[in-house]
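thread from #wetlab-drylab

HS: before we spend reagent money on co-crystallization trials with S-adenosyl-L-homocysteine, can we at least see a predicted complex? here's what I'd submit
DV: go for it
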Amino acid sequence: MNTIIEDNYRHKGLRKQMVDQLRTKGITDEAVLSAINEVPRHIFLDSSFVELAYQDMAFPIGSGQTISQPSTVAFQTQLLQVEKGMKVLEIGTGSGYQACVLAAMGAKVFSIERQRNLYFKTKEIVEQLPFRVKTFLGDGFEGLPTYAPFNRIIITAGAPRIPDALLQQMKTGGIMVIPMDNAEGEGQTMLTKMEDGSLRKEEFGDFKFVPMLKEIGND
Ligand code: SAH
């Protein structure tokens, strides 16, 4: 593996500025901000983007996919209300950045990617980092029954519907955050599984996501 995992003062300074910018964009959860401050985002991007890694922008990561914008990562993570030791399932590993942010908050992260090349590329990067992230190649619609139930589930690709299998793999009191169209446009839906098995649904603002696709692919 040739990737040089260097996190120098310049990177750290840029990251701090990005965190300050996220505060001005309404991210208030200090645990989320501190995790974002900890995870070197430039490592998850192709080297040509290093200079831009700490701007609030999405970037291509190969295979037609993108690493989500930091403000989107921060917003979804804030909704998820992660606590130390929780089991978190992520659908859409992509670059692995979001998974590492969750792990930096103390979660045990299980992340599924359907795109074969991305899965292998990201696995190699994540294994060199000191975060508790386990990656899987598969269809996120099915979840990971072997490792269920989860305290939290985060979907990072636009979803056409709420996948049933994922609801079943969520603990009582658990929270799922899922990008779905709502009255605000392309937004975020937050589902909480109540004691009586019902779901509380809350909808939030406008975000752009690449679509969630079925099955494993090489496209
Ligand atoms: N969380 C990522 C952003 C991922 S973009 C990051 O931090 O970089 C969305 C990802 O979801 C893409 O990599 C895409 O290949 C993946 N994806 C789309 N549909 C999926 C599915 N059904 N199961 C698993 N992954 C899926």
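DV: The mean pLDDT is 90.
HS: ok that's useful, forwarding to the group
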